[in-house]
Each structure stands twice: as structure tokens, then as C-alpha cells.
Amino acid sequence: MRTVPGPTDHVVVVGAGLSGLACALHLLGSGRRVTVVERNAGPGGRAGHVRMGGFEVDTGPTVLTMPHLADEAFAAVGDSLARHVELTPLHPAYRASFADGTSLDVHTDGEAMESAVREFAGPAEAAGYRELRTWLERLYRAQMRRFIDTNFDSPFQLLHPDLARLAALGGFGRLDRRIGRFISDPRLRRVFSFQALYAGVTPARALAAYAVIAYMDTVAGVWFPKNGIHALPRGMANAAAGAGADFRWSAEATSLERSGGRVRAVHLASGERIACDAVVLTCELSTAHRLVGRTPRRPVGLRHSPSAVVLHAGTDRTWPGLAHHTLSFGTAWESTFDELTRSGTLMSDPSLLITRPTTHDPALAPPGKHLHYVLAPCPNTDVGPSAEAWRDLGPRYRDSLVAELERRGLDGFADSVQEEMLVTPLDWTAQGHAAGTPFSVSHTFAQTGPFRPRNLVRGLENVVLAGCGTTPGVGVPTVLISGKLAAARVTGGVRGSGPRLRPVQRVRPVQRAARTAAVSTEEGVHDAS
In the list 117, 309, 349, 350, which could disulfide-bond 126, CB 3.0-4.6 Å? Predict the structure, then answer.
């Protein structure tokens, strides 16, 4: 593995999102001195936390999987996730509601899910689910260490026995077809393939290897942190500060000072100069390219994932048909993905994610009130309406979403809304996200693994990238890994000459310890990158 040559005692991390915080913790655990520069007033960025009247709103990710990856970052400085964040496992992980009026509670426990599938679709589909679950577990084991949790220096690193194992599992076939080998009910197939949208590709065109995302969602488990998902990066920032990190809030990096192929300092908008031995850029990929002064040449330009419209609604009532996470599927399926990725039109028959965080944390809303998060995928601004077009389109689309929710059983939704916030590609663009999407570069084959934008910067030997635009990709688990991989580029697994921290302590498993963990109460926000 290629690493940053020369001294790396003091590292500046630009961005205090999940990848930046994970990177900082791993760097601190290797004895580096770390300064974290964040343009916002607290940890956050791509995802955040806002107060909307009396409601506490997560503006980014609402689904937390693989919390052990966060615990790994805490453990780097002898801390633990359980000491900072109280996690509740979600049962069910999701409720899937279909256009024909049926619904299915999606459990991550194998026996509970098999029973639910048997009741929902019959014994043959239940048997197929068990085979699918086994396949997902094997797929995850074949991919995680070699193709996800790894730094690539060359595509030739793919030439490993694990590649043959992945091929034998059908990982290079098409996702939808592979899922169809186990289950035939079209409703069930949606439950285990909609995750391809997270990767920015359609199930019919996505590699079957991307079913590893379905593993995370439907097998590994889904959790909810008390006080919202922003409690995770808040706790990470607290742990990093306790381990010696120097945080600079409301501090925007504007340029990098270079000499002899190395960055010698980071300059801030305030005029401050921070000398350093290495830099980790966790900002939007286009922003990182601007700071380093070059955009890597690629045979084909980068393709971005679809975007989303999000309606945050504080209401005076809720609906018993909703779970913590509800997937509300329309009748359309293949045409929906075509609209999102090819024709660039709004979904004519939308599939929606509805999250009600007050299901497990009523304190996120005033007494007797409820918080609902409605996410509707939409085309990004490269293929769909421009950012500016959303200025007029947004309110009209909001009204159509509310009408659709009422048609799907949320009677009186429009009248129940007391506080609301609408986020569209116009807002994502204003936050600096390329193509008006918070989901960054899509996971086409040409933008996956060693073909994804690398986390080393050619021509600058001490600059490393992290975040969802680089290795390994989009999503909370992967950006946590991204921060760890960036730190490994700096440290190479060897401690620097800075002060050593106490040895890493053995911590209890997250699932057991989180139930009794105390939660830090400091203010903060969170980030998906």
C-alpha cells in the first residue's frame, strides 16, 4: 500500500463529517497531532441537524447500519461508541408497503423474517429467502476485507482468490436477476434490490455485488441513536477532542500552500495559516479538486447518483400504519429508475422512504407532536431539471408529495403539518454538492473499487482524500471506512513521533453495551461524508 512519505506528525483534516471524524480518531490513535478544520459551526456538513420550531431534525442520513465500524474509530483512541451514543436496534428494520395494499415488516433476524415471508408470500418464498440470506452473508464475507475495506493502488489488486469467490457467487451478474434466482414475488424482490439506488444505479443494471448493501440493511441490522443520528458524529467529535484533536469551527479552507510536491500549510478564509505535514480533504470531491488545483483526467466524465427531495414535517398527529422506517412503493418499478437516471423526469409513480424518528425518541418533538421525514428520489441536475428550476418546481412538487401521501393512507397529512422544511436539488447545489445530489458519484462499474476516484492525489505526495466521492463510496458505513483508509495512507500502520496515547481498551459489543450507555449532551451536527 502506498503511503504518504516523509514526516506526518501534524495532519490537518479538512471537514468534520463522519469520514473526517473517523480519520481524525484513527490518526490520533496512531500518535499524530490532528487539527480539524470545519467551515460550519460544529461537526456536520453533508448531513446535519437543525432545530425546526420545537422539532429536532436530522437533515441527512436516517438509517444507521454496521455501528461496529464507528466503534472501531472510537476504539482507536481507547474509547467506545457505547460511552457516547445509546443505540436502539430497530424491529422491524423497515416496513414495506405496496401499491396493492399489502405490507411486510422487514426483520433482520433470520427466523422472524422467514416467518414473515412465509405468511406474506408462502412457504416457497420463505425457503428462497433463507437461501438468499445465506448468499448475502457469503457475498459480504467475500467483499468486505478485499474489495471494500481496502486501499487500492492498482486494478491488479483485484487479482486475488477472493475475486474468484465473488465471481463464483455471481457477483458480476445483474442484481435483479440474481435476487430473482432466490425469490420470485416481485414485491419481495423490491425489498432486496431497492438499495441499488443508494449506489446510484438501477437494480436491472447494477452488479449483483451491490447486494452487499441489502446485507447491511436486511441482515446485519438497523439501529437508531437516541437524540438522532447526529448523536454519532457529535460523540465522535467529543472523543477526538478528548484525545487531543484541535477543532477549528467556522473555519473554511480556501487554499493549500505548496512547495516541492508537498502541501506545507492550509490557509483559511480568516487569513490564518496552519502549517502541517499532511492534509486529508474530506470535502465534496469538486471542492477538493479546486483546492489541489487539478481535476484528474478520466476517459469518461464522472457520473453522479440521483438526487432527492426531502420534506421534513413536524405534525400534530401520526398514523399507525407507519413504522420507524417505511418504504412506500408505487406500482411502477423499472420505469421509475429510468425516469431517475435516464429521462431525467420526476417519478410519475413515486417510491418513498418515510421515517418517523419520534417512534423511538419522542423527545425529538414537542409533547404530543411527531416528526416525519419523507424522501423522494429525483433526477440530479445533470440529467433532470436545473437547480434554478427547482425554485419554482419545489413548492409544486411538495404539494404533489403531500397529496400522494394522503392517497396512500396518511389521511389529513396536509392539515397536520405545523412546521416544515423542504430540501431540493437547489439546496443541495447551494451546499456545494455536484450535480445537485448529496449522494455524490454513482457506483457504476467504472466508478467502483480501484476505478473509483482514488484517495491519493497525483502530484501532491502528502494529500489524501476521504468521503463518499472516493474509496470505498457512498453511505454511512463506507464513509466511516473511508476515513480509516485515509488515515492508513498517512500512517501506514506505524505510529508517528508525536505523543503516544493510552493503549486501546477492549470494549463490549455495541449491541449489548449500548442499552446502558450514557449519552453525551453537548450540541452538534452530523455528516455523511
Answer: 117
Q: Residue 455's pLDDT is what?
A: 94
Q: Is residue 96 part of a domain?
A: no
Percent of the chain with pLDDT over 90: 74
The pLDDT value given to residue 94: 97
Domain co-membership, 418 together with 451:
no
User: Is 385 part of a structural domain of the chain?
Assistant: yes
User: Taking a C-beta distance cutoff of 8 angstroms, is the pair 311, 52 a contact?
Assistant: no
344 with 383: CB under 8 angstroms? yes
Mean pLDDT of 13-37: 97
Distance CA 488, CA 30 (A): 9
Region for 53 from its dihedrals, namely left if φ exceeds 0, alpha if ψ lies in -120 to 50, beta otherwise: left
Q: Which of 404, 435, 466 is the last residue of a domain?
A: 435
pLDDT at 116 over 50: yes
Residue 150 confidence (pLDDT): 87
Query: Last residue of some domain: 403, 435, 467?
Result: 435
Tally Cβ neighbours within 10 Å of residue 411.
13
Residue 2 lies in a domain: no
Identify the burial level of 103 via C-beta atoms within 10 angstroms of its C-beta, where 0-12 means exposed, 13-18 middle and 19 or more buried.
Answer: middle
List strand residue ranges (DSSP E) for 246-332, in order: 246-248, 253-259, 262-268, 273-275, 278-281, 307-315, 325-328
Extract the runs of DSSP E, i.e. beta strands, from 443-510: 463-465
Q: Residue 211 belongs to what domain range?
A: 111-219
- Rounded to whole angstroms, the Cα distance separating 422 from 395 reads 8
DSSP-derived 3-state class of residue 409: coil
Q: How far apart are CA 311 and CA 52, in angstroms?
A: 12
Domain annotation covers residue 97: no
List, in sequence order, every residue forming a beta bridge with 222; answer none if it has no partner. Answer: 65
Q: What pLDDT does 157 receive?
A: 66
Residue 390 has pLDDT above 70, yes or no: yes
CA distances 61 to 336, 436, 475, Å, are 22, 17, 8
Share of the chain above pLDDT 70, in %: 92
Cell 416467518 sits on residue: 115
With H, G, I as helix, E, B as strand and everything else as coil, classify residue 471.
Answer: coil
φ, ψ dihedrals at 483, nearest 5°: -65, -40
CA atoms of 506 and 387, how far apart (whole Å): 48
Indicate the range of 5-9, 124-128, 470-474 predicted with least confidence.
470-474
CA distance 201 to 223: 25
Give the angle 457-302-459 at the CA atoms, nearest 5°.
15
